Amino acid sequence: MTKQRDSGFASTTTRRRLLLGAAAGGAALAAPPIIRVRSASVRSVRWWYFFDDPNAAPDALVSEFQKLHPDIRIDAERIPNNGGADYATRLYSALLAGQGPDVAMMKIANLSRLLEMEALLPIDSYLASWPGRGDIAEQHWKLAAAPDGKAYILPVQYVVLYLYIRQDWLDAAKMAPPKTLDEMLEVARAMTGKDRWGIGVRGGAGGQDFWASVVMGEVPWEKGAFVKPAAVAANDWYLDLFRKYKVTPPSTPGDGFQQTINNLKAGRTGMTIHHIGSASGVVESLGNRITAVPLPGGPRGAWATYGDGGQSIFAKCKDPDAAWAWISWLSAGEPNAAFNRLTGQVPVATSMAKNWTEVPKRFVDATVNSLPIARILPNLSQTADFVRTVWPQATQKAFLGQISSAEMMGAFEKLYFS
Amino acid sequence: MAKPRYVALTTGVPVFLLLCYALLPWLWMVLSSFRPESDLTQSPIAIMPSTLTLANHIQLLARTSFASSLRDSIIVASSSVVIGLAMAVPAAYAFSRFRFAGRRALQIQFLVINMFPVVMLILPIFVILRALNLLDTYLALIMGHATFTLPFAIWMLTSYINGIPQELDQASMLDGATRLQAMLLVVLPLAAPGIVAVGLYLFLTSWNEYLFALMLTGRNVRPVTVALQMFIGENQVSWGLLMAGGTVVSIPATVFFLFAQKHLVGGLTGGAVKG
Amino acid sequence: MKRSATPLLMLAPALTATGILVFFPVLNTLWLSLHNVVLFRPKSQPFVGLANYVEALHSQAFWDSLGRSVVWVVGSVSLQFLIGLGVALLLNRDFRMRGLVRAIIVVPWALPSVIIGLVWTWMLDFNFGILNQIGVAFGLLDEPVAWLAQSGTAMAAVMAAIVWQGFPFFAITLLAGLQSIPHDLYEGAEIDGANAWYTFVYVTVPGLLPVMVTALLLRMIWVANSLDLILVMTGGGPGTSTQTLPLHAFLTAWSGGNYGSGAALSTLLTLILLSVITIYVVRGQVDG
Hints:
Radius of gyration of chain A: 22 Å
Oligomer: heterotrimer
CATH architecture of chain C: Orthogonal Bundle
Largest sheet of chain C: none
Shape of chain C: globular
Number of strands of chain C: 0
CATH topology of chain C: MetI-like fold
Helix content of chain A: 40-55%
Distance between the termini of chain C: 29 Å
CATH class of the largest domain in chain A: Alpha Beta
Number of helices of chain A: 19
Structural class of chain C: mainly alpha
CATH architecture of the largest domain in chain A: 3-Layer(aba) Sandwich
């Protein structure tokens, strides 16, 4: 059990990269480096990643890659994620101290902040000649696109939120899976009974995804959009699931992922919103009694949160060619499938996703069928704060009746457009 | 003087209640670490497990790197105790036994810096340790923990040492002992209960610390608090592993203290002062 | 000459370590609090004087979170202290297996906050919580309570967890203090025919006072700054009902990215603590 000191640590400061200027200026070129100064013949790449399953380790993938590229060494470092909060704290501190990774798993939500920091390297020139590009559906590229029109993220895995629903409860109520939000409310009311509720909704972290689907739909987030009467009315409908119709459990304002998924598993709720990442666990508890369908659309349009997983190369990376070799290898073909078997998500490589059998087919179908309506929250620098602090606080207050629907929407308007 | 029934009532009953309070949440955790996951997603939850399993513990120690994290935490926490006490004992002795210019100011200084929220200091600390090239080493974490517990250690030890009469040092120095000998051979043994209490504090603070552990470590050093956090994923919480990890983590410090608490016995008697 | 050098030499290691790892970062953060520092805009950090402070003092969120901090600190420290003192007196008696009991009560303190937070969250859970189940079974509760989802109960629930985590600290610290009270004082009291209460008030309390005061002081500072249990259990919610001042500063800096404002909020917290403690220390000085 000998541990080796990461040689990248000591040598970072002594190396200089000509490419830096290009990335820092945000100029169009992202050509391979003109001069490469190397202290050793082995090209090391510091890679940061996070997996949900503590048993899953990328060691086999790393050694397979290193066998194909004997001159490259991947120094893999697992970073605690904690809902993205710890990962972000660690990443920003490291970047500010000049100690960041060369390449890392990344969420689109961090893109605008990292671009402001000029921390990322555009990958367009690599993509132009990459054969795997065509195997990744256009929707992924569209969603990951940066505001400046360049590409900084290479998708590696994805999920789309769908609606878990108890098939046996539906059958008992002689109802069909809901296609619209109003139908969903009807189903939820039919399912609600003694010690059980129609739908589990998160009042805490992560709840903004379903909220955005209901309240904002396809309406663009621009000045005034939150406070328009239609938006406030849609928000009232959302809040009333808890306030008025009581089709969600009394603990809703404090509930997060753990509570909503456990309530579903225990038969306390008939529906909840999540994605394929939790499918194996849910099936283990409920077997054939549980199914999934794409999220119902409402009057504001169909919209399902795209849970992105991509990788980015950092501007200070000493050897972007090696970094690209690693991440592009992970995003195509069998390695992409192997990667997703570790993370429990769905391969972005269409050829691999087609016959995905890691979870029962109905969950894969619900995911793939949701891809066309997959969207992300707007890529603005306020969004990270919105997701982590502003949305949960305002929503919990509104659920508890401390503020009105209009005041809740006003808080968002203030965050984004004041 | 023995009044067994009276003692059972005034000591036995409160001790029993105390043990219930201290242990029931912990026992609930330990019990759940031996239960299959399916037991835990039942509502209402059954108090008695359907079956007991070692699966979580085996998985914890065999399939994750928790064992090496335990070793890291033991190294870091015990070194923090040693280094922390090595810095704090002389400082506390100086505050207690000497009257010098700036004494009060220095003493208060140790309190004041303790008041600043560490979450706002972690970024500059990260930059400093990076400049010293100490990131991801045991030393970085040990120094971080030992330094941030100094205010507590110094102030508490000063209080304990203040309780030991000055006459003892002076008598021993009249007998030819140096200042250092007076501190090490006369005062320290008498301050043993205080040192054990402070040592325990240093150990547990380091053992349970998360922010420094998150920020200052990496591939080489990975304390248990960080390892436990890894069991909380984005879409998956490994509840069984967390509970098994919590069970394992609570044992070393408790066992250490079982031995150390013998020294929580005052050595100071009237005779010592008179002599 | 020698007399003045010795104490400084003895203080040197502690002062050096503190200087590098605490003093410099504090100065750095104070400096940042006078600038408009946005975490993800490292290149533009204009000097703004006291603007961050003025903004904080004018915001409702600052005063609200300060009020919650007062409740948090006073409530949890006094409960920890009272339970801890009782336990220390109890464990100071002579009884069989005393050593084992002393070690066992350290267990809550030997658990990381993330575990304590998760276990308490789970025990308090609306659907799966053992406490709700026991409460209903014994008729203490009419129906399960969503403790962490209501603004009226969330703070109390998190405080219950931190009291459980923190009482062993007082128990052990005060027990060590009890041990350093000279035995002859008790013997003297016994010879004088003093009863238990008289002995407690006139022998135990004065002997324990310095340690008690210091432990309370340091624990207060620690609890005032601690946010890990709150983060795990409620994240400051529901709404902002458990958002204390350091949590507000933390979220402002690390979630909102306004590092300058976060630094100013932290400085204000330090100043408030400082003024409370100055009163405490000055009075202690007079008493001593």
